[in-house]
Write a structure and sequence with these properties.
Elements lengths: L2 E3 L6 H16 L6 E3 L5 H5 L8 H17 L3 E4 L4 E8 L10 E5 L4 H8 L3 E3 L11 H13 L8 E9 L3 H6 L2 H18 L9 H10 L2 H7 L2 E3 L1 H15 L3 E5 L8 H19 L1
Parallel strand pairs: 2-5, 5-6, 6-7, 7-8, 7-9
Antiparallel strand pairs: 1-4, 3-4
Helix pairs in contact: 1-3, 4-5, 7-8, 10-11
């Protein structure tokens, strides 16, 4: 049973998300992880009539309310964008104080911000970073975490496209068209967003960098493709260099890899890569 009680008012999606995730935590017997992000691109926010320039402050308030809904019997909140009075939410999650929360990161400025909040991170490097450039920003996150006095060890996840094949030639050729479609689409979307209020960093320069990259550049800097041994070796090096606690992988980067090849890629990852990373 889901229930949100309010003696005053609250923007309804806030309560519903807290309810839905808590209910899923019960259904899964306490296995839910709550991954969130403010949304990288302005056009995502346009669909909800929410100005992108307000997105960071809205995200912070939104997340604060959800955590309070999970951890407090009743609470009130008065922020710049959201307000609720004497709110109670049922059910509470199985996991205490709440399901693990992981925040997605795509920009440089977010690393220390999330570190101060004390949440684990998941990095998507595609728009801004080469894999080899991540270490200093992860260090900023860790330093901010410890400076804020949070207990425990900062947790760092990395989202990366994987393609595993029996031969190096197949691992090179089979995902190429789909990968370059993703590169072109990303470059265009970053360029279209460059002039929008609320962006941080030089999006025009980022768009130009993406558009100028060849397939070989993407293989070196953004994805992990190869034979099982090659992929395991690179993932192990990334895990050691960046002190990763989690790796999330994509099997259809660019969304144009035929389904049969996606299934073969997934089978190769599960049979020959993951067992060697445990």
């Amino acid at each position: 049973m889901l229930a949100v009680g309010r003696d005053s008012f609250i923007l309804s999606p806030l309560g519903h998300i807290a309810e839905d995730i808590a209910t899923l935590d019960h259904i899964s017997q306490g296995r839910v992880e709550f991954g969130v992000g403010r949304g990288t691109f302005p056009d995502t926010h346009d669909g909800f009539n929410s100005p992108f320039a307000e997105s960071r402050e809205r995200f912070d308030e939104y997340l604060d309310i959800i955590v309070k809904a999970w951890t407090q019997e009743r609470f009130s909140f008065a922020g710049k964008y959201y307000r609720c009075d004497n709110l109670w939410v049922r059910p509470k999650p199985v996991q205490r104080p709440h399901p693990p929360i992981r925040i997605g990161i795509t920009s440089e400025v977010t690393f220390p911000l999330v570190g101060r909040l004390g949440f684990p991170i998941i990095i998507n490097p595609s728009r801004v970073f080469a894999l080899s450039e991540l270490a200093p920003y992860i260090q900023q996150y860790r330093e901010a975490w410890h400076k804020a006095g949070h207990a425990g060890v900062p947790q760092v996840g990395l989202r990366v496209p994987l393609y595993v094949a029996k031969t190096a030639e197949r691992a090179y050729t089979e995902p190429r068209v789909s990968t370059m479609a993703a590169v072109q689409s990303l470059g265009n979307r970053v360029a279209d967003s460059a002039s929008r209020a609320g962006t941080t960093g030089d999006w025009s320069a980022q768009a130009e960098r993406v558009r100028s990259m060849r397939y070989e550049d993407w293989l070196r800097d953004k994805v992990v493709y190869g034979t099982p041994d090659t992929v395991v070796d690179r993932l192990q090096r990334l895990r050691e260099e960046l002190d990763l606690t989690q790796i999330l992988y994509e099997v259809n980067y660019g969304r144009q890899i035929p389904s049969a090849l996606q299934l073969e890629n997934l089978r190769m990852i599960n049979e020959y890569v993951i067992p060697q990373l445990k």
